[in-house]
């Protein structure tokens, strides 16, 4: 006995609610329309019945009132004439005998045996009359006296009240209207969801190996068009990110492969020809190569953490104080002179900005001849840090290239053979992560790097407008 119920339960669970938005909303719209039309139909039916019933009783009341006055005046003819639809007229005495009647009610027994009491002389009555079926009557007791006659005026119940043709007609009119509403809803939703289906189809074609496809954008500025535009913008950003990752992976594998191959070659040489190889020189070369590999891996981890890690809460940082702190180095290095104007503060990560300034200073020390100058100032709401050395400088054509990952100019390879080529790339990413810029600009001597960040108008309060 449990299996059929379980099957029925699964059937209901799978069938409702439908997975299709089009089906679901069409059913909902049709159901709501059915409720609305039902309310309207019932209201129309009740209003029509009430109106017909009220009009009928008004006719019978007027006729009964006319002949009640005639009875009191003693002017009622033997055959009561009729001039309205209320043509069933009888005057019945206290014993239930028909004293006088209209031609249509002559020879008939009393239309009803209901006799209004003396304290309620006027009554609406619906009764079954032999030969006439349901009859709507208005009864008037002529006087409160016990032997007072009663005047009955009535007419057969209208077909609208005695049958269900009004309900049938209302239902017959509502069914096509309901079907039309369902069809309109289905068609409209189909047109509305057609772009969504096109977007879904295109999205299913996009894969990790090819994300160059874009979803079709429908005309207009509605929510679906905005969704398609946002999806395309997201795909564009994703494509750029994937291309960067692939290029980065390719560059990283190339940069790692070269020192590893050199290290392997020197070690194999030392093993195969120990008599021809200086063991100490081989170890020094291997150590130098290991240092380069370590530098590359360390910088790669820094880039990975910057992209994947949760950003630290920003803090107010005094750039001049931070630059002086970072510029402190061994005595035998090129001296660094920091010049600051006022309290120049920015909001950001102290660790990352320290890494940025450290990278710039290390690069400047490596290429400087005698000194490195660092300037910190605030101009038009921007905190500007300049790092200038008195070395050979950077050619204009290479000023953007030096920020590329693993980019190392010939002078840089000569001065720092073990470098990773990622220092300036990391510095620019840190600057952009803080909403700023880092560029190599013109300088009367050597190289000049300029960092621009949004300045604070107070100790960590809010950015300048």
Q: Strand-and-helix sequence, N→C? A: HHEEEEEEHHHHEHEEHEEHHEE
Overall 3D geometry?
A: rod-shaped
Classify the secondary structure makeup into a structural class.
alpha+beta
What gap, in angstroms, lies between the N and C termini? 76 Å
Helix content: 40-55%
CA gyration radius, whole angstroms: 50 Å
Account of the protein in words:
The protein is α+β, with helices and mostly antiparallel strands. Helix content is 51%, strand content 17%. It has helices at residues 2-15, 21-73, 159-162, 165-205, 223-272, 279-308, 319-327, 350-367, 410-415, 423-433; strands at residues 79-80, 88-92, 98-102, 122-129, 133-141, 150-156, 315-318, 336-340, 345-348, 372-379, 382-389, 437-441, 448-454. A hairpin with a 3-residue loop joins strand 4 and strand 5 (133-141). The protein is rod-shaped, with a radius of gyration of 50 Å. Mean pLDDT is 81; it is low at 1-9 and 459-465.
Which labels suit this protein?
465 residues, alpha+beta, six-stranded mixed sheet, 10 helices, 13 strands, 17% strand, rod-shaped, disordered N terminus, disordered C terminus
